[in-house]
Known about the structure:
This protein is α/β, with parallel strands linked by helices. The protein is built from nine helices and four strands, in the order E-H-E-H-H-H-H-H-H-E-H-E-H.
Amino acid sequence: MDHLGAERYLVAxxxxxxxxxxxxxVVDPRLVRGVLLSGSFAPYDADGLDFLTDMGLMSVIxxxxxxxxxxxxxxxxxxxxxxxxxxxxxxxxxAMASLLPKADATVLxxxxxxENAVSMRHGLAAxxxxxxxxxxxxxxxxxxxxxxxxxxxxxxxxxxxxVVPLAHAKWPARHLPDVRFHVGDREGHxxxxxxxxxxxxxxxxxxxx
Length: 209
């Protein structure tokens, strides 16, 4: 950000990017003016939260493997990565059914679905280490206390989310000092964010004046 000459800025995190956005607010409290979270995970060891409750089967399998060992995680992810690389969206969609409420299925079968498939194949072309690292980061300690974050937070979550269940949003809603919590009653993990992140950032910026 120094290179860009940005004196103050907003950060946004969707899904597994949420904890990283919050960490940025901890590291640079004078520079981060606000945080946007959409479909974000809570800490794996969060008090009063069962991390896997209401989570879709594919996600449960991944997180259980990651919590068990590096080797177990790699074994599971290698199979899933191969499926993504070798099959088109229509072929892998049934396997993802446990993660996709109607709103998300609609998004995935639109333009975003095509773009996402291309992006995932490109990302996996050199291997799946990043996918595995992401899971280990999510099952490890955050290393900071969210209650110390002073920046305003806009927290958005779909009530139908099966990738990151709603309980994951309720936890930071209780622990962040300055947070506005928005629930999309009919939204999922994708539909709560796809096509509206810019609008949500504008809303956060307007809140800051």
